[in-house]
Write a structure and sequence with these properties.
Smr domain-containing protein; single chain; 3 helices; Smr_dom_sf; 2 domains; 4-stranded mixed beta sheet; Smr_dom
């Protein structure tokens, strides 16, 4: 450090130009004309050229690993009968409802076993028989919250379930 060099004080918002150096003590003047004395170890050179030649290395952001259990997408169970069996016309209405109920209970158990948080049940809009069966099953379950996807529940063909 020599007279005329610009310096900044470590840990303080103070800088200026060196006016004299006496051993380990450096005297400098700030931009307002005030004089300060600091030991050399408390000062650093204020030189923009020091920083201009430093290469900035931009690192790629690490990807956040999200387990399959905690993905935002929820599971969807479609209870429309033609999606569940090959020949829907081979079954009478009681058998259809029984198979749909068994599938619903099976999927609810699967969700609990695999700690899934949300399940959407698509029952469609019809005469309301399937919708009533779904509601009866859900009301008999513990540790779940459920609500219709639409504001007008009689126009909704789906129910969203959240597991606790």
């Amino acid at each position: 450090m020599k007279i005329g060099d610009k310096v900044s004080v470590v840990d303080e918002d103070l800088s200026g130009t060196i006016t004299s150096v006496k051993g380990n003590i450096v005297v400098f003047k700030d931009e307002y004309g005030f004089t300060y004395q600091y030991p050399k170890e408390k000062l650093v050179p204020k030189d923009a050229d020091l920083y201009e030649n430093i290469r900035v290395v931009k690192k790629a952001e690490p990807k956040k690993v999200v387990s399959k259990k905690h993905q935002k997408n929820h599971m969807v169970l479609d209870l429309h009968f033609h999606h569940m069996v090959k020949n829907p016309s081979d079954y009478d209405s009681f058998e259809r409802l029984f198979i749909q109920k068994a599938k619903l209970i099976e999927v609810l158990d699967f969700c609990r076993k695999h700690n899934l948080k949300r399940l959407e049940i698509v029952h469609g809009i019809g005469d309301g028989t399937l919708q009533r069966m779904v509601m009866d099953v859900l009301e008999s379950q513990s540790d779940i919250d459920f609500y219709n996807k639409e504001i007008l529940h009689h126009q909704s063909g789906a129910v969203m379930i959240e597991f606790h």
